[in-house]
Amino acid sequence: MEIRWNWLKSGMVLGTVFLIAVILVKPIGVSTQFVIFDGMVWNLFSEDVVSEDSSSKTGYTSNNEYLNKSGGKYAKNIENPINYGFLFVIAMIGGGLISSKLQNSKISSDDKEAPKVFRESGHNKRYIVTFIGGILVLFGARLAGGCTSGHMMSGMMQTSLSGYLFAFGTFAAAIPVAIFFYRNSSKGEA
Amino acid sequence: MTIILALAIGGLFGFVLHRVGAGNPQNLINMLRLQDLHLAKVILFAIGSSSLVLFILLATGLINESHISIKAAYSGVIFGGLIFGIGFAIAGYCPGTCLVGFGGGRKDALFFVLGGLVGAIIFTLSYSWINSTFPSLFEGIAGGKTTIADTGIEKFGGMMDSIPALAVAAVIAVVFMLGAWKLPKRFNV
Fold first, then answer.
1. What does DSSP assign to residue B188?
2. How many Å lie between the alpha carbon of A162 and the closest alpha carbon of chain B?
3. Contacts of residue B55 in chain A, CB cutoff 8 Å?
4. Does A1 touch chain B (CB under 8 A)?
5. How many pairs of residues across A and B have Cβ atoms under 8 Å apart?
6. Is the ipTM of this complex over 0.90?
7. Smallest Cα–Cα separation from B168: which of B179, B155, B156, B152?
8. Is the predicted pLDDT of residue A189 greater than 60, yes or no?
9. Partner B contacted by A139 (CB < 8 A)
10. What residues in B contact A172, CB-CB < 8 Å?
């Protein structure tokens, strides 16, 4: 069983982290970095994914229309892996690791493979479902231009219209799908 | 300095997401099934409280305005959200929490990350086609980069720019924080 702060403490601390980020640097966002990582891998095998171009705003260009958006912003980050956005998400993995190491109670080996609501179906099925879930989530996030962090949290903090539209779309699909998909699962505690 | 900030804030964000329970897909799935609204209360309170402080900082000029970044609103945001929601519901992870879950030792999170990398490359490769076939998906709604409470920054639109931004933001913030407080921890249906 993992530590879980109560909702008020959780909300205050999480809100503070989003504020610290925007005060010191910029609003938190995560999903773009999946594209950046893909681009880095692609760049290892292809010569023309990213090239230097002094006429572009960032000094980089890509033969892929998406990576070339906003004056080659993504192309630049692919060519320079030591950048704020990418290191930020790598550090998030470390943050999760440190938090889990600093708590006395560990999660069970069953729980590492699948959460309780999914336990009866077996871990192989869980891995397939999370893999498909990952495809849908990142495709959707890139179409929307952001995810839970960038649109919902950072966006709604700034009262962005886009954040509200994203939250509406997400919950309109997620609530009925979750209720249907897990209709036979127990009401178990987390 | 940028590197230190990235590691410090990213690390802190990951740590906090883990401690609030967002790295555990059980908590997210049960929130979406309306069985355990802990995380919904957390998100509502976090948005409300941070929004109030942010607009106080904007009103008093204590924050560097160039740090404010508003994403564009277009119909693709809603469609993307719908697709996102389906994956979110079946997996119980989102792009940030899967990294935290993986850091915390969850194997299913790794499969989500790998799926995410596949989803991101599918979008990257199909963007050109989507953009030319359905250009209206990316057309701005209400001016695109628009906020409800006016940020006072020229390049971003404000939907309620005739009312003081702090008043609008404060009302929204209070609604969110009250919602967080009043929402039951669980529905017994």
1. -
2. 4
3. 159
4. no
5. 509
6. yes
7. B152
8. no
9. yes
10. 81-82, 85
With tokens 């609030």, the residue in question is B20
Q: Are residues B3 and B88 in the same domain?
A: yes
Kindly state the tokens that stand for A113.
Answer: 């493979």
For residue range A127-144, list pLDDT tens digits in order: 999 999 999 999 999 999
Is the Cβ of B173 closer than 8 Å to some Cβ of chain A? no
List the 65-104 stretch of B: residues with Cβ below 8 A of A. 67-74, 76-104
Are B83 and B103 within one domain? yes
Q: Provide the domain limits for residue B179.
A: 43-69+146-189
Q: What is the mean pLDDT of residues B115-133?
A: 98
DSSP string, A142-171: HHHT--IIIIIIIIHHTTBHHHHHHHHHHH
A39 CB within 8 Å of a chain B CB: yes
Q: Is the pLDDT of residue B153 over 50?
A: yes
Instruction: Evaluate if residue A190 carries a pLDDT over 50.
Output: no
Q: In the prediction, which pLDDT does A187 show?
A: 60
B99 and B179 housed in the same domain: no
The CA distance from B93 to B109, in Å, is 7
The minimal CB distance from B30 to the residues A82, A156, A190 is found for A190
Taking the domains of chain A in order of start, what are their residue ranges?
A: 1-105, 109-190
| A56-101 confidence digits (pLDDT tens) | 999 999 999 999 998 999 999 999 999 999 999 999 999 999 999 9
Q: Is residue B15 part of a domain?
A: yes
Q: Which of A35, A103, A160 to mutate to test the interface with B (most CBs of B within 10 A)?
A: A160
- Of the listed ranges A182-186, B56-60, B77-81, the one predicted with least confidence: A182-186
B38 domain residue, yes or no = no
Concatenate the DSSP letters of all residues of B68-117 into one string. ---PPPBHHHHHHHHHHHHHHHHH---HHHHHHHHHTT-HHHHHHHHHHH
Are residues B120 and B160 both part of a single domain?
Answer: no
B186 and B110 together in one domain:
no
Structure pTM? 0.96
pLDDT at residue A179, as a whole number: 96
pLDDT > 90? residue B186: no
Cα A93 to Cα B100: distance, rounded to the nearest angstrom: 5
